[in-house]
Structures are given as C-alpha cells and as structure tokens.
Amino acid sequence: MENPVKLETRNYALRYGNNLALTDVSLRIFANQITALIGPSGCGKSSYLRAFNRMNDLIPGASSAGEIFLNGVEVQNGNIDVVMLRKRAGMVFQRPNPFPKSIYDNIAFGPRMHGVSSRSRLNQIVEDSLQRAVLWDEVKDILKQSALSLSGGQQQRLCIARVLAVAPEVILMDEPCSALDPISTLRIEELMQSLKQNYTIVIVTHNMQQAARVSDWTAFFMLNGQRSGTLIEFGSSSEMFTQPQDKRTEDYITGRFG
Amino acid sequence: MHDTRGPFSRKLDGVYILLTFAACLMIVVMLAIILGNIGINGIGIVNWAFISGKPEAGMTEGGIFPAIFGTVALVLLMTIAVVPVGALTAVYLHEYAHKDSKAARLIRVAVNNLAGVPSIVFGLFGLAFFVEFVGSRIDNAFYGGELHYGQPGIIWASLTLAVLTLPVVIVSTEEALRAVPDDVRHAALAVGATEWQMLRHVVIPQAMPGVLTGGILAVSRGAGEVAPILFTGAAYFLPDLPSRLNHQFMELGYHVYVMATQSPDVDATKPLLYGTVFVLLALTFLLNVTAILIRSRMRTRIAHSM
Q: How far is A171 from chain B (nearest CA, A)?
C-alpha cells in the first residue's frame, strides 16, 4: 500500500541572480515516510529542501519557478500564508541554532508566536515536545537554564523539539547531523524513526550510509551539463542503494565521485 | 643581488620609528597635562556644598547644582527622544530595507552627513526649526499666541541635541543588529514567526545591549556639547531649577564657558571653573566607562552563543 502524497513539486526551478541553481525538479514525497535528498556538494539539494517552507524567499536576488504543493494545495500563490506554511513544514538546520534563551522559552517560542499564552498549556506543550524529541529526561530539571549550556547533540534535539512544539505536518532537515558526533547522530536517527509515525520527514544528507539507514525513499541530485542542479533519480532507498537505474547514481553511491 | 639602498637606510628606519613613537607620546602627554591639571586643581574644590549649592556672588562663590541638574535633565530628555527614533531607524535600515535600495542609501547618506555637521549649525537649526517654527505654532494653536513654547527651553535644547546624537544611536544599533546571527533569525521564521515577531522576540532582545551602548554614547556626546543649546534653551544664570519643559536651564558646559569669559573677577572664579570642569569630565568619563562595560558584556554573550 502506498502512502498519500504529502509534498510535491512540478518543474521547480530556482535562480540566484543569473545562476540557475536548480532546474526542472518534479518529485513526490509520501506522507509518514522519510525521504533523503542526496548528491554532491553544490547540487542544489539544500536549496530544494528550502523550497518547501519558502525559505528561499529570504535570499536576496533569488527567484523561483514551477509549482510546490502541500497536501495538493499550491503554496506559492497566496493559497497558504507563508507564516502558516512554515508552521506546517518546520525546519531543522545544519548547525544547532537555539535562541539564547532558556530551554523552556526555546520550546515555548513557536506556540507563543501562534498565540498560546496559557501557562499550563505551554507547560504541556514543552514537556510533550521534549518527550517526543527524547530530550525530556535529560533537561526536565534544568528547563530554566540557557539552551546554550547543552551539548551540540542535545541542542539539535532541542531544535527538533522546538519545531515539534508548533505541531507541524512536515519536518525538513538540512544535514541535521553534520555538526554532531557519531553517538549524537545515532540518537537523531533513532528519533527520526520514531517521529515518522506522526510526521513526514525530508532530510538532506551528505552521508550515504545515513541515507541508506534512515530513509524509505531517496532522491539523487546532480549538476547537469549546464551546471544547474537537477533530479537524476528517485526511488525507494532499498532499490536505489542496491540497484540504481542511472549510471550517475551508481557512480555516486559507490563512491566514484562526490 | 646588488643592494642599492645605501648605508643610511637602516638608520632611516630608526628615525621613522622614533618619529612615530614621538607622535604617540605627544598625545599621551597632552592628555596627561589636561587631566592632571584639572584633577589637581579641581578635586580640592569639589565637595558637597559645591555640588549641592547655587552659584553666588556673580559666580565667584557657591556651587553648581542648577547646572548639574540642568545637564542631567537635558540629556535624559534627549535620550528619551533619540533612542527610540535612532533604534527604529537602524531596524528599518538593517532589517527591512534592501541593502541597495535608493531609500536606504539616501538615509545612510543623510545619517553620515548629519554626523559631519558642525554643532553650532545644529544650534541655529534648533533655534529656527524647534523654537521659531514648531514652538510658535504650538503657541498659536494652544495658547492663543501667548509666548510659551516659542522661546528657548529645555525641550527644544534636548530635541536639538537628539538630532545631533542621532547618528551615534543609529550606527551603534546597526552594529548590534549585524551581530545577531542569521541562524537564529531563520530558526524563528522556520517555526512560523512573522518578521516583526522575530525582530521583537529574538533579534531586538539580543541587540539591546548595543542599543543601550548607543544611548549612553549619545549621552556622553550630548553632555559635552554647548553650541547646540546656546540658542535653544541654556541660561546664563538661573538659580531656579527648570520645572516645565519650556523653562530655560543651566548646563555644565555652558556654565564653564560663561565663567571663563563673563566673570567679573577672573581670579575668584578660577577655582570654581576647575571644579566645574572636573565634574563635567567625571560625568562623561563615567558614562563612557558604562558604555564600554555594557559593550564588552554583550561581546562575551555573543561569543558564547557562537
């Protein structure tokens, strides 16, 4: 049985000034699955990830073309307010980026911005989000401490909890483990598996083993002849990593370049 | 390879080292002379009676309390005016305006030019704009033409100073905003905060020490200025403290000028002059130290969050 389509792009292209960074990406991402975006550096996979919550809008001089759908609704032409879109599709960044506030205030930030002010409701959201991010037991006694006092791995789980606190449908992860040690990486990967039941996860990763380990689906990006990033191949991870259809995918995953 | 530099080049090196060092030394010596002179001659004068008393006997006796009070009131009013306007300008320039937009460039040019205008010009501007233009219109509108605000007063003097110190606040706030990493801005936007919520709850709190530093630097700049308040509110001799916004007031810098040039008895005034300059210097010095402390605390805080 196939899961419903959660996210989709049709002929998505992104331009930074005169440089066409991404071209003609059409892809479907299934609900409650983990989709990995892989490819060599500079192939546009992070830019593609940022299309889904329109973070590319923030880059001066960037312009996009094509369509992006969330639950079948186009998100770029006013059907969905960008603020609501980002609430529904939360993002975890490459480097842990907690606010210089307490652990509690970091998690409560999103709900507060969306108008939750009841103390008991906030307490519950904070505990619930930290539980889901498997961080609660480590921080439940130090909620008033600065989030910056946590280790890198804890900070990244805090950032995941901060996203969970606004009850998103999609979690976009941009190389969430690249700044972390192997043990912290493992914990995030386990966390992703448990989050999959309730959320749709898209992860950009440089780490092929990670993609193979955690993801259900894999999309392989590469620069084309005109030096624009584009989608080369998409398929279930088990097939992609054992019998890729495209020669370039095979070369990349067997480590011949990249 | 043949060296064509000749036998003197090494000696010349020594001469230049000496020359540059002498230039540095001169600055240090000058400062030491000024501070030493004022310190030695001033500190003996400063006591409670001097600080809390009124000028007496044609400024040859008594204290300087009205001038201290006037200075503090002046810079307080100035701060209330300049910090919000300056900080909001900086927020617009750094957060909302596109870097290369015409409006942003125009504002930047205006700010830079504002910083370069001689302070006496601000004094004249204050007289023409605040006193003559704004003040007399207030009088016409609310007091039936009776003279209340269309004359020099502390409100106009502080607003004139606020215009003068605006660039200080803007530059310092912009620096502080620049120091807030994009990481945390994106984090706020990525959980669905609006741009204003991001600014209000994440960026501005982190930039607050910079805004405060700007405010204090503005105060220490403003506290020493005489020219802008000359025509806009400062009084030659006024033992009564200002109790309304349109009252005139005494001010330390102006008081120094008055005592130095208008005294009926130069020798009798001299010790008081030293004391007044000492108080003025101590005040500005204190403000600068506070600004430096706040800034260094902010730097360590930002360093920790990296």
A: 10
